[in-house]
Amino acid sequence: MSDAERQKITIPRLAAMKARGERIAMITCYDATFARLLARTDVEMLLIGDSLGMVVQGHDTTIPVTLDDVLYHTKAVTRTRPLAHVVADMPFMSYQASAEQAMLSAGRLVKEGGAESVKLEGGMELVDTVARMTAAGIPVMAHIGLKPQRVHQMGGYKIQGKNPDTADQLLREAEAFVAAGAYGLLLEGVAIETAAQITQRVPVPTIGISSGPDCDGQVLVLHDLLGLNPDFAPKFVKRYADLGATVTTAVQTYCTEVKTSAFPTAAHGFHREANQSLLPIGEKVRMRGRKP
Ligand code: KIV
Known about the structure:
By secondary structure, the chain is α/β, with parallel strands linked by helices. Helices cover 39% and strands 13% of the residues. It has twelve helices and eight strands. An eight-stranded parallel β-barrel has the order 1-2-3-4-5-6-7-8, surrounded by six helices. The longest helix has 17 residues, at 243-259. The two termini are 39 Å apart. The relative contact order is 0.10. Bound molecules: 3-methyl-2-oxobutanoic acid. Residues 28, 47, 49-51, 89, 186, 188, 209, 219, 221 line the site of 3-methyl-2-oxobutanoic acid.
């Protein structure tokens, strides 16, 4: 798509994409450098995911991530004024205590962070909260299925909706969130058939991750698809590049060149002004007219 054709991706545009059967590409993004690179692609949605806790901060789970952490990274992304729709993730315990807490936390992500919507992980227990948030004008994407913030409760990261009962429960949750005003659903770790059924059943876009091919769109963690995390290769990730190897090779070459004095050379530096009296006369003449 050319720059002139690119338009701001709004929630009504995302809804129209679902209606037309057009697939939606979403990706996580945590900083301005990547936000600028992603602006050159057709990606429609950027997620400042609480996965930043694992990808950027080095935690083992997303649980330690704070609202201020998500706010910091959201600001870094929105400063680049992306045309993609910006979704900020609500971290653990920034919304579960009450609808008031959820609205105040989401309000900060939208007002201070510049996010255009928020995402929260939940089930039936959060439907009323989402109804309050959407009634107050906060666009919400509901994240159902595998909920990484509940890793301890689940005893690991487990695929959801694999039998008729749990599939029915997920369908009911999906419909309840839509009735509460959610503009989209994120389906994580949902059995393929269940994800397909939910996608057919609801009028809003479904975005899948490890949920098979039949959702309206797909999300991946940027660092996973770029191969920046060489030790992480789960079945649901497709690696489109091997930037991990590119980075280590480049930095190792840099180290070697520094140690062997191959870098920097004079070509990478700046000469002193020609008329500076510290230079010997011959050197002054040689340097005349050079600009840094
Ligand atoms: O935090 C995140 O990046 C997410 C995606 C895995 C969907 O929630």
